[in-house]
Amino acid sequence: QVQLAEFGGGLVQPGGSLRLSCAASKVTFGIYYASWYRQAPGKERELVAQISSGGVSTNYADSVKGRFTISRDNAKNTVYLQMNSLEPDDTAVYYCEVAGYWGQGTQVTVSP
Question: How would you write the pLDDT of the chain (112 residues) with one tens digit per residue?
């Protein structure tokens, strides 16, 4: 069974940075797009960033452009989300998605 495990969430002050990681197992990771989504309390889950299978093409939500960077290491079956200049509105549970499978989510809280 495909497993995705996210790491790297936590509490950070506004303006700070975090790096999320998502390790995939039991999936041919390198042939699929990989995505990060987030869901804030009382809100719909939204796409944050997406990266193509080879890592050449990326897409970002307007709200995170210029602050977040998605990347991947296919040799390690891992996708990353580098988050800089974090804002309180970035507070959410962050999920990775690969091939229709989801991780359990990791909490990111941005607060003074």
Answer: 889 999 999 999 999 999 999 999 988 898 999 999 999 999 999 999 999 999 999 999 999 999 999 999 999 999 999 999 999 999 999 999 999 999 999 999 999 9
Cα 38 from Cα 43, distance rounded (Å):
9
Q: For the chain, how long is the longest CA-to-CA vector?
A: 41
**Rounded Cα gap, residues 71 and 16, in angstroms:** 19
CA distance 90 to 53: 26
- DSSP H or E stretch at residue 69: strand 68-73
Burial class from Cβ neighbours inside 10 Å (0-12, 13-18, 19+) for residue 80 reads buried
